[in-house]
C-alpha cells in the first residue's frame, strides 16, 4: 500500500497544482489581451510599445500561444496534447528539468529565460525555396506558438495533423507576405509568459516567484488568515482573487478579456483597412 501511495502521490500533487492555476484557454486570451494593451494605440490600449495594425493583429494570436509556454512543464497541459508523442516528450523533459509543474518555469526568471531563448533562436537563418533567406529558428517557434494558440482556443478541429497543417499554412503566409513581423517575436514571448505568471499568481495555487529561492514563512504565520493565503506554507506567493481553476470570477475575467481583445482587433482592423485605402488612393 505504501508503495502505491509513494508512486501515485507525485502525480496527484502535480494534478492538484494544475487545478489551482488558470485554464489554458484563459491564459491564451489573457496573452492576446495583454499584447493589444501593450502594442495597440486605440483608446483602451496603453500603447507602451506601439506597433503597426498588422503586427498588433498577428501578434495577438502569437502571444496567445506564447502565454501557454510556462505550462510546457505540465504533462497533461495544452502543449503536451498538441503534437502527440513529440510534445508529450518535450513536456516530460521540461517537467523534469524545471523541478516539476509550477516550479522553475513559473518564476520571474522564466520571463528572462524564455526571452533570451527566443532571441537566441532568431540567430539561426537559412534559405527556403520560394521564401528566400528566413530566420529558421524564429519561424519554427512561430509555427509552434500558432499551433498552441489554435489548440487552446479550439480554432482547429480534426486532430493533430490538421492542427499543424493549419499552423504551417498561417506561418508560411506570414513569412511570405510580412516576414518583418518576426522582429517583435521576443516581445510577444515576453508578454505572453509574463501574462501567464500573472494569471497563476491571482489563483489559489500561487507561484514560486523567486525560484530557485523559495523562502517559506515562519510557522507562526501558517495559521494567520489572509497572510497564509498570500505567503503560503510551501513558500509560494499569491493574491488569489480568482480562487480555483474554473471559478465564476475566472470566467467573468475571461469574458471581459475576450470582449476587450475582440474590440482591440476590430479597431486595429479598421486602421489597417483605412491605411490600405489611403495607399491605393
Structure description:
It is a single chain. By secondary structure, the protein is an all-alpha fold. Residues 1-19 have low confidence and may be disordered. Helix content is 59%, strand content 2%. Helix 2 runs antiparallel to helix 3 (53-66) and helix 3 (53-66) runs antiparallel to helix 10 (248-280). It contains ten helices and two strands. The protein has a two-stranded antiparallel sheet with strand order 1-2. The radius of gyration is 20 Å and the shape is globular.
Which bin fits the share of residues in helices? 55-70%
Q: How does the major sheet shape up?
A: 2 strands, antiparallel
The rounded Rg comes to: 20 Å
Mean pLDDT across residues: 87
Number of DSSP E strands: 2
Order of helices and strands: HHHHHEEHHHHH
How are the strands of the biggest sheet laid out side by side? 1-2
Structural classification: mainly alpha
Portion in strands = under 5%
- Indicate the multimeric state: single chain
The backbone outline, from C-alpha atoms, is: globular
Low-confidence stretches are: 1-19
The N- to C-terminal Cα distance equals 78 Å
* Number of continuous helical runs: 10
Descriptive labels:
globular, two-stranded antiparallel sheet, 2% strand, 59% helix, 10 helices, single chain, disordered N terminus
Please sum up the structure shown.
The protein has ten helices and two strands; from the N terminus they run αααααββααααα.
Draw up the topology in text.
Blueprint: H1 2-19, H2 24-39, H3 53-66, H4 84-98, H5 108-121, E1 126-128, E2 132-134, H6 136-152, H7 160-177, H8 185-201, H9 227-230, H10 248-280
Antiparallel strand pairs: 1-2
Helix pairs in contact: 2-3, 2-8, 2-10, 3-6, 3-8, 3-10, 5-6, 5-8, 6-7
Amino acid at each position: 500500500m505504501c508503495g502505491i501511495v509513494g508512486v501515485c502521490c507525485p502525480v496527484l500533487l502535480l494534478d492538484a497544482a494544475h487545478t489551482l492555476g488558470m485554464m489554458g484557454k484563459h491564459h491564451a486570451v489573457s496573452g492576446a489581451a495583454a499584447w493589444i494593451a501593450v502594442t495597440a494605440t486605440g483608446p483602451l490600449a496603453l500603447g507602451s510599445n506601439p506597433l503597426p495594425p498588422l503586427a498588433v493583429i498577428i501578434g495577438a494570436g502569437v502571444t496567445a500561444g506564447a502565454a501557454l509556454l510556462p505550462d510546457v512543464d505540465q504533462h497533461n497541459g495544452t502543449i503536451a496534447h498538441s503534437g502527440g508523442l513529440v510534445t508529450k516528450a518535450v513536456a516530460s523533459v521540461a517537467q523534469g528539468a524545471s523541478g516539476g509543474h509550477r516550479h522553475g518555469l513559473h518564476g520571474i526568471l522564466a520571463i528572462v529565460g524564455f526571452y533570451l531563448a527566443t532571441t537566441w533562436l532568431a540567430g539561426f537563418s537559412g534559405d527556403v525555396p520560394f521564401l528566400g533567406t528566413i530566420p529558421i529558428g524564429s519561424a519554427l517557434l512561430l509555427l509552434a506558438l500558432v499551433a498552441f494558440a489554435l489548440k487552446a482556443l479550439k480554432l482547429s478541429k480534426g486532430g493533430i495533423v490538421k492542427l499543424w497543417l493549419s499552423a504551417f499554412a498561417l506561418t508560411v503566409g506570414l513569412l511570405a507576405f510580412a516576414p518583418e513581423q518576426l522582429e517583435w517575436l521576443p516581445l510577444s514571448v515576453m508578454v505572453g509568459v509574463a501574462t501567464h505568471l500573472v494569471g497563476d499568481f491571482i489563483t489559489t495555487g500561487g507561484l514560486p516567484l523567486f525560484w530557485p529561492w523559495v523562502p517559506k514563512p515562519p510557522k507562526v504565520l501558517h495559521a494567520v488568515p489572509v497572510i497564509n493565503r498570500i505567503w503560503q506554507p510551501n513558500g509560494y506567493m499569491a493574491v488569489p482573487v480568482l480562487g480555483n481553476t474554473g471559478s465564476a470570477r475566472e470566467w467573468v475575467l475571461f469574458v471581459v478579456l475576450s470582449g476587450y481583445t475582440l474590440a482591440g482587433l476590430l479597431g486595429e482592423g479598421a486602421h489597417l483597412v483605412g491605411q490600405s485605402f489611403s495607399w491605393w488612393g
